[in-house]
């Protein structure tokens, strides 16, 4: 890594010690750094992951522990394994963990979280919590990789669809200020290759998204008849929708203000932006006022609907009562997936 000297318009090389040189261990340092700031670390890797925990026991039949366990927005399980230096058995260890974790039920993940963390996970996911762990991914973090490991990763990925990412990390140290930096780079697949693979329908760097051939198939997995009935009603009325994620959209003045996602037992509603007294408004109208909570640093709201009266109140509100309300905070389409195509619409 180069340090920029603007005054002299020059570069200077930073020291690049190994993790061992600066006494950074896997479990007591690197693992702690990541678990204390997961968003920053995963973002550096170009990933959006929700950290479930560290030192996770994958099975009662082994004494081993997974370094870090996470899920992606599609509910896919992500096994993260850390190594100083490089180790030929790094990937084999992670594969065995992923195999054991594949036997887990969604509730096994939720048991590792408290109520606040479960709410945060619900807000993070773009699928129902019951869809957690339908697929597994592996992320290897190390200072270096043997050629044999990288070839094996490519073979497993290309031939068998195993989703593996190999990330190289390195420490950079500024001897003048004594500041330390962690440099991260993807070794396999390369970012450009990952994008190309996704465009061709392969799974590098991304989990496959849930997709149904039609509306009937999309709602087949919903067990709550109130949810099914409401969605069928709205789809019949040509409500704007996104079949890939079982979503209905509601706009005011051309701006998207709510989207509703059908889940197995209820419907998840996201309100983009706020209006005066909105918390009280929804709490008074819904059967369970506790389901109304501010999200995204208070810029938006999320709520759940699970009964016919709830759906009726919501529909009356967004199509009549709130038509002339004054909005503040948030951008109408911020944070909402815009990848839909005409082929995805109901």
Average pLDDT: 85
The biggest sheet amounts to: 6 strands, mixed
What's the CATH first level of the largest domain? Alpha Beta
Question: What is the share of helical residues?
Answer: 25-40%
Distance between the termini: 50 Å
* Overall SS class: alpha+beta
**Alpha plus pi helix count:** 11
Helix and strand element order: EEHHEEEHHHEHEEHHHEEEEEHEEHE
Structurally, the number of domains stands at: 2
Oligomeric category:
single chain
Second-tier CATH architecture of the largest domain: 3-Layer(aba) Sandwich
**Uncertain ranges:** 193-210, 331-346
Question: In the CATH scheme, what's the topology name of the largest domain?
Answer: Trna Endonuclease, Chain: A, domain 1
Beta-strand percentage? 25-35%
Q: Order the strands across the largest sheet as they lie in space.
A: 3-4-5-6-7-8
**What best-fitting shape do the alpha-carbon axes yield?**
globular
Number of DSSP strands?
Answer: 16
Radius of gyration computed on alpha carbons: 23 Å
